[in-house]
């Protein structure tokens, strides 16, 4: 009897392998073919895309199967999709709270302090300022200076140099302050400058003019080489609020000279400079500033380049003891990311660099690691969904079912993220489009239609 039952079980398994397994394979092939047809209809035959290059990858984690790949192992300039890799590094190594300042008490009247790369210090987004509260104590401070510890350039490799006046191109630094930006805005028919340190005779002269001529057209500009902000008249439009990066160092001055001057101006006290020959200076005491996710969420929602660059520098500082984007990228690629499908050319934290090269499968890989190592719920809280952030005008009917990071620069756009289908399938996707001659809007709308169709059908 036992032998008979075993024989029947064997026959059932054989039937499954012989009959049902091919059916599953056919179904899988059918899904791939259907998505291929959809891609042709929505993307490949789209005149805004067809003259450029496109790579697509769609993956189901539950089955460890790719549903569809098109040039998914080819390299593309990903723009701000690069921030997904920076996000992984930050979530992996920055803990629950940002290290805002390191310090060491020398005596009752003197404390040494050291920058950590934290971009939230006196940033307008963060009202609670633990580091400022600490520095307001009635003691003197000595800021540790060591040029070899911060072997970085204010602007990254492959950045467009003429973006230096744009708020999305704030300079990187060891100890950011006020987001490394100057804010100019109108209040009571006068220009207000924040921080006031940058108020100068040119702005003062403008305010005298505004008192008599309120409809004046102008804007504020600064030269590449210094922080002498000037008023430019006879512009096309009336003035609106401006945020302009300030130069974090001046010719012949110590790297942190502007930071120290701004800190002195804010605290109303002299900040000494402590010269150190130790390239890996560590001060044992820590002031924590903000919850890490309070930094990561705006970094991904509004695609904040400055937050991303500083996140990568903070990871380098915590892991290597120095702030060096090239060294930390190489370290990550040799350790945590060693099994990546195609080794990328990863250059910066933000994706501003046109030297970055990643494949669609690389983004499937990092999304899967983010999901597996830090939970889907946390990732969904950090990435924007339809109607939020950089998706504010997209995926409105898919809000709550798509969570993604966009990327964009001239003639390049991308989107990679998580998609929950109407049949409750969790998918990871990446669509990278390069070298199209049109603007980005028709390309993004075509991708939106393609992804929404997949959500509706599967």
Topology (elements, then pairings):
Blueprint: H1 2-44, E1 53-60, E2 65-70, H2 83-93, E3 97-107, E4 110-114, H3 130-135, E5 140-145, E6 181-187, E7 190-194, H4 201-210, E8 218-221, E9 230-233, E10 242-245, H5 257-267, E11 271-275, E12 285-291, H6 292-301, H7 305-320, H8 325-334, H9 360-374, H10 376-382, E13 402-409, E14 412-420, E15 426-434, H11 441-457
Parallel strand pairs: 4-5, 5-11
Antiparallel strand pairs: 1-2, 1-15, 3-4, 3-12, 6-7, 6-10, 8-9, 13-14, 14-15
Helix pairs in contact: 1-11, 2-6, 2-7, 2-9, 6-7, 7-8, 9-10
Q: What can you tell me about this protein's structure?
A:
With 458 residues, the chain is α+β, with helices and mostly antiparallel strands. The chain folds into two domains: 36-91 and 296-457, Beta-lactamase (3-Layer(aba) Sandwich), CATH 3.40.710; 92-295, no CATH class. The protein is built from eleven helices and 15 strands. It has helices at 2-44, 83-93, 130-135, 201-210, 257-267, 292-301, 305-320, 325-334, 360-374, 376-382, 441-457; strands at 53-60, 65-70, 97-107, 110-114, 140-145, 181-187, 190-194, 218-221, 230-233, 242-245, 271-275, 285-291, 402-409, 412-420, 426-434. Strands 2-1-15-14-13 form a five-stranded antiparallel sheet, with helices on both faces. Strands 11-5-4-3-12 form a five-stranded mixed sheet. Strands 7-6-10 form a three-stranded antiparallel sheet, covered by helices on one side. Strand 3 (97-107) and strand 4 (110-114) form a beta hairpin. Mean pLDDT is 90; it is low at 2-6 and 14-26.
